[in-house]
Design a protein that fits this description.
single chain; mainly beta; 6-stranded antiparallel beta sheet; 2 helices
């Protein structure tokens, strides 16, 4: 029977063994290396809307020609996977998600973290503690495989994340969570903006946007003969950053460097790569709760074919998908696809170090 007052939570713990951040995949530990500047709880509890993390396993069934049915079976690979959804807040829980797809960050005394693709960045693994009414479920070696962000007009900015890791390791007593963002509210689209091609002015025609990071984790090679679950951290393969922007009407003429319908149907399409040292973004997204903005910049973007629908009841809108590309000639920063400036005002100056 479920509790009358829900005891449900999602907690993340970065996996390491020493204060200098030596990683220990699949081993839960305290958070001292995650806490080089401030004082924070050992587990990062986030205010999740829902989660679907679950233990999975393959079943191998064997049949032979002498019997009319399969007679033998073995349990194969065991692993855990699932998703978390939540409203985006400027707190440690969201910071841990950016850490999961970028690795280390730089930290200023104001709590502003810069995440960017750098050679040598090491992606972390996490232990995940999940409360479900009656018991606490522990999943180790959990790695972030996909991070998605969606902002729609007059709604909260929503985040979804997909995880993959080792088999569930324990079921125990419920914890009493202290949520890292309990004192703040989530980011709202009325305080957000989208800018194009280094233009300092935000477009007033943007109705919604989505952005997704996909790590394409190589889970097959995380396994080994003689083991039923992962023995090493799944490594990322080709990084993919994709998204879409929906405009309130079809843009035939740009006002602040927006992509236009004509750009899309011109031979060769539209690829944007400003490559200027000071502000070289092709697209800049800013989401905020009114106090702590989070700025996401993509440096080289290929726009895809337009989608435009109209009916007798609905007005015509204009949606463009895009793919962020590796900027081999970029200078701010060099050789990167994206940059995230994340401002955590909920708990201050946590240092997302290399794990």
């Amino acid at each position: 029977m479920a509790n009358q007052f829900a005891t449900r939570y999602v907690g993340l713990i970065p996996e390491h063994t020493t204060a200098t951040g030596v990683r220990s995949y699949g081993t839960s530990s305290a958070m001292t290396a995650y806490d080089a500047i401030g004082t924070n709880p050992a587990i990062i509890y986030g205010e999740a809307d829902d989660e679907s993390i679950s233990h999975q396993f393959d079943v191998l069934n064997r049949g032979d020609m002498s019997r009319f049915g399969q007679a033998k079976s073995q349990q194969g690979k065991e692993y855990s996977e699932g998703s978390i959804s939540f409203a985006m807040q400027p707190d440690d829980f969201m910071g841990a998600h950016f850490h999961g797809v970028y690795g280390c960050s730089t930290t200023a005394t104001t709590g502003l973290h810069t995440f960017v693709e750098l050679v040598g960045n090491v992606l972390p693994s996490f232990t995940m503690d999940i409360g479900r009414d009656e018991k606490d479920h522990t999943y180790t070696g959990m790695c972030l495989n996909r991070l998605g962000l969606t902002a729609n007009l007059n709604e909260y900015v929503m985040v979804s994340s997909d995880w993959n890791g080792k088999a569930e390791s324990a079921v125990g007593s419920l914890a009493t969570p202290v949520f890292c963002g309990a004192g703040i509210d989530a980011m709202h689209f009325s305080q957000c903006s989208v800018k194009f091609n280094e233009n300092a002015v935000a477009s007033t025609f943007v109705k919604s946007f989505s952005l997704e990071w996909n790590m394409n984790l190589d889970t097959d090679n995380a396994c080994s003969l003689g083991n039923t679950t992962y023995v090493r951290q799944p490594l990322p393969q080709m990084r993919e950053i994709t998204g879409s922007v929906e405009f309130a009407r079809v843009l035939h003429t740009a006002t602040v460097d927006e992509p236009t319908y004509t750009n899309m149907i011109t031979a060769g399409g539209l690829e944007v790569n400003p490559d200027a040292a000071a502000t070289d973004y092709a697209i800049q997204f800013i989401v905020t709760d009114g106090v702590s903005p989070c700025t996401i910049e993509l440096f080289k973007v290929r726009w895809e074919a337009p989608t435009s629908n109209v009916s007798g009841r609905d007005g015509q809108t204009f949606t463009l998908n895009f793919t962020a590309l590796y900027d081999a000639d970029g200078s701010n920063p060099a050789n990167a696809m994206s940059k995230v400036l994340f401002n955590d005002h909920a708990n201050g100056n946590i240092n997302y170090e290399v794990m």
